[in-house]
Amino acid sequence: MFTGIVEEVGDVVDVRLGKDSAVLRIRGPVVVADARHGDSICVNGVCLTVTELDQQSFSVDVMAETLDRSDLGALRQGSRVNLERAMAPDARLGGHLVQGHVDGTGTLRSRTPGDAWEVLEIGLPAELSRYLVEKGSVTVDGVSLTVVDVRPDAFTVSLIPTTLSDTTLGTLPIGAAVNLEVDVIGKYVATYLDRIGTGWAQQNGGSHE
Q: Are the C-beta atoms of 111 and 158 separated by less than 8 Å?
């Protein structure tokens, strides 16, 4: 489990692509400082398991499901990624509960600058829009953010100076893909209500009226 508070921006130093998998080597001295083999590190919002490490970098295996669900397959040597270690049980929850299980990818549509901040508009799959609410939480490339506005195919977030300078979102170009994870509590509530509604309808002749 993670919080969506990025600890450092790492650099991809090596990518080995297989037929339907990949091995990434990532430089991240902060997150490997106390890491061990088998630990979890969130890479651009994706929970991955450390397979090898030294004092400066670590390696992770990326399987087909992760490549299909996320934008990690587009990473190349030199790509920059947001990194976060798994949350300690006695740590402050600075962002929100983040699983590192990407629900899908979105696309950065626009950046609107303010005096010291920016509003980003991000397009998303229609099936994910139902899980977003104004002032609710969403994870974008591993960064916990507050939703400003929600539309059927997009949403907006405001980035403060710290987020702009300390994560990859500050330099993300228009048209770039981003990993999205909606609030897991919202997913559970929506799924539960869907099931309750279906069960109620079946017990009452198939109608909600």
A: no
pLDDT digits (tens, 9 = 90+) for 35-92: 999 999 999 999 999 999 999 999 999 999 999 899 999 999 999 999 999 988 877 7
* 181 located within any domain: yes
pTM score: 0.89
Is 21 inside any structural domain? yes
Backbone angles phi, psi at 168, to 5 degrees: -70, -15
What's the total number of domains in the chain?
Answer: 2
Task: Tell me the per-residue pLDDT of 149-170, one tens digit each, with 9 for 90 and over.
Answer: 999 999 999 999 999 999 999 9
Hey, which residues does 82 pair with through a beta bridge? 9
Domain range for 36 is 8-85
Q: What CA–CA distance (Å, rounded) separates 36 from 157?
A: 34
Write the DSSP assignment of the chain as a string of letters.
-B-S---EEEEEEEEEE-SS-EEEEEE-TTTTSS--TT-EEEETTEEEEEEEE-SSEEEEEE-HHHHHHSSGGG--TT-EEEEEEPPPTTS---S--B-----EEEEEEEEEE-SS-EEEEEE--HHHHTT--TT-EEEETTEEEEEEEEETTEEEEEE-HHHHHHSGGGGPPTT-EEEEEE-HHHHHHHHHHHHHHHHHHHHTTT---
